[in-house]
Amino acid sequence: MSNLAEQPLENEPAPERVVVEDTSQLAEIRPIPRVTIQAFCESEAVSRTLELASQDRRMAKAHVKVHTGGIPAAIEFYDSAPTPNLIIVESRLQGAELIEELSKLAEVCDAETKVVVVGTINDIVVYRDLIARGVSEYLVAPVTMADVMSTVSDIFVNPENGVLGRTIAFIGAKGGCGSSTICHNVAWAISSAYENDVVLADLDLAFGTANINLDQDPPQGIAEAVYSADRVDDILLDRLLAKCAEHLSLLAAPSTLDRTYDFEAKAFNQIMEVAQRGAPYVIVDVPQQWTGWTKEVLSFADTVVITACPELTNLRNTKNLIDKLGELRPNDPKPHLIMNQIGVPKRPEIGVADFVASLSVEPITTIPFEPALFGSAANNGQMISEVDPKNAISGSFNMIAQVLTGKAEISGEKKSSFNLRALLRKKK
Ligand SMILES: Nc1ncnc2c1ncn2[C@@H]1O[C@H](COP(=O)(O)OP(=O)(O)O)[C@@H](O)[C@H]1O
Ligand SMILES: [Mg+2]
């Protein structure tokens, strides 16, 4: 990797030119996972190298956009747009001026977004300062494709820098309470509103509805993955994914009864591990069952979301789930709760305040019973926000996506900012 620690010190600004590529250096680089990368360049040379890198087969799964305008353009852009997994900024600024611009950028970035700076000063002090401030890498122009791709690979593929993806598992407190519908709509919201890649895995092999809700009928999916679990790798998984939208891929359930679906407890672990290395979000629709493998999947997930309706059986089951998950995951936050189907006509309901009183968990949100809206979405194979984007329930799904990902609000308003402290902890 071309960083300053390995290069001679000199203060000459680098000339604007594309370096002749030694393509043999690319051979070592592993394919880049499903990440979004946006670059804001100042020089023709750096933008051309990034464009070329984006067309390399190793970057085929990444979504790369190259803009001009350097850090000021990035600051303006992210004032109203969601931030990607990685921002590459080129700047001719130095010292305090560069730091000043980067702090302004930090204010409009989500904390998880990584930043790589391409500068002109070949100086170890600058390098160390930027790394200490949380910049993932500092490259000196001119850069090669190999510099760029090995930097991206180091950030997202190198296990020393942590696992790329987070797994969010959804389970219902009772069959029919809307867990799958909410799971699919939240997966959609993360992938469309935040433009982050999501792999949605439907683990309800017999009766799964993600294929219907997302209007997909792929020949293969989660069943092929679980029946070859010992040899699941990124190549096999890629083959089994059905692309539903630019940033959303589905591991569909067969939803047939040709077989019975009894699995050993760890049957899905390898699949989830591989999926997590390939995309920033893995969303798992867990059927409402208590088996060795559903328990294992819920224990494995980074975040668990329970959907419940306001009645007694749901309350008992929610309490049991929260207690059991607390035992299984003593060092993790409590599961999130979503109250759904509030206000079914003539049905006696437990008020939300009473429902949560004995649970020590506050719901992220409550979703009303809206049979016309949910019915047309299900029958048309559409998401709620496609049927009625202005409906408050579409806003609720965006809000749930925001809470689960910890990202800033998308509303056209200025996003809640993070300071350079957040940048500080990026490089592990
Ligand atoms: N808030 C709601 N209002 C009306 N119908 C809903 C609501 N949430 C879910 N549904 C409907 O309830 C049914 C069961 O939902 P589903 O997501 O399959 O439940 P689960 O996965 O918990 O068994 C579906 O027909 C779905 O469209
Ligand atoms: Mg379901």
Features:
428 residues; alpha/beta; Rossmann fold; eight-stranded mixed β-sheet; 38% helix; disordered N terminus; binds adenosine-5'-diphosphate
Strand segment tally: 13
Q: Total domains, how many?
A: 2
Considering the protein shown, what is the CATH homologous superfamily of the largest domain? P-loop containing nucleotide triphosphate hydrolases
Gap between N and C termini:
17 Å
The largest sheet is:
8 strands, mixed
Helix content: 25-40%
Strand order of the largest sheet: 8-9-7-10-6-11-12-13
Helical/strand content category:
alpha/beta
The CATH class assignment of the largest domain is: Alpha Beta
What global shape is seen? Answer: globular
CATH architecture label name of the largest domain: 3-Layer(aba) Sandwich
Low-confidence stretches: 1-12, 412-428
CATH topology of the largest domain: Rossmann fold
- Overall average residue pLDDT: 91
Q: Which ions and ligands are bound to the chains?
A: adenosine-5'-diphosphate, magnesium ion
What letter string, H or E per element, gives the SSE order? Answer: EHEHEHEHEHEHEHHHEEHEHEHEHEHHHH
Determine Rg (CA atoms, Å). 23 Å
Task: Quote the beta fraction.
Answer: 15-25%
Give a description of the structure.
The protein has 428 residues and is α/β, with parallel strands linked by helices. It folds into two domains: 4-161, Rossmann fold; 166-405, Rossmann fold (3-Layer(aba) Sandwich), CATH 3.40.50.300. The protein is built from 17 helices and 13 strands. The protein has an eight-stranded mixed sheet with strand order 8-9-7-10-6-11-12-13, with helices on both faces. A five-stranded parallel sheet has the order 2-1-3-4-5, with helices on both faces. Helix 13 links the parallel strand 12 and strand 13. The protein is globular. The two termini are 17 Å apart. The relative contact order is 0.13. The protein binds adenosine-5'-diphosphate and magnesium ion (MG).
